[in-house]
Amino acid sequence: MSSNNLDTLYRQVIMDHYKNPRNRGILEDGSHTINMNNPTCGDRIQLTLKVENGIVVDARQEGEGCSISMSSASMMTQAIKGKKIEEALKLAKIFSDMMQGIDYDDDDLDLGDIEALQGVCKFPARIKCATLAWKAMEKGLKEEEQE
Predict the structure, then answer these.
(1) How many domains does the chain contain in total?
(2) I need a labelling partner for 59 at 20 to 30 A (CA). Which of 17, 89, 103, 136 fits?
(3) CATH number for the domain that contains residue 23
């Protein structure tokens, strides 16, 4: 597939998650609620996680921001549901590396829709938008590990 076609496909995936966000809302019975914002551009997120026995049972996100920020939050909540804390944190590390243009070396890992965000690393001002939800998730899961 040509680079131009791939960019178009990725834009479509990002816009689909932006217009039809997955896991939108707040968990009333969540074990952790994390509020974060990006003061540079005004993106904000409230992430609610439900963790039981070291597994992310559910994740919901609510907030407002640009298409990159909101689609990233949607993709992230989909990716971490059902994962062990360690797996979710590993995914966050891989995502962070991807945003810095660093290749990840886990052939067994399918990032799915998240790969659509890999082009964000070409736009340094947008990296904080893409990583906001992921940083909120890391913060919540690290708090969980300390309890």
Answers:
(1) 1
(2) 103
(3) 3.90.1010.10
| Secondary structure string (H, E, C) spanning the chain | CCHHHHHHHHHHHHHHHHHCCCCECCCCCCCEEEEEEECCCCEEEEEEEEEECCEEEEEEEEEECCHHHHHHHHHHHHHHCCCEHHHHHHHHHHHHHHHCCCCCCCCCCCCHHHHHHHHHHHCHHHHHHHHHHHHHHHHHHHHHHHC
Which residue is associated with the tokens 């609620």?
33
CA nearest to 130, candidates 88, 97, 82, 87: 97
Tell me which residue range forms the domain holding 7: 3-146
For residues 70-98, give the mean pLDDT.
96
| Angstrom distance (rounded) from CA 120 to CA 122 | 5
Decide if pLDDT at 104 tops 90: no
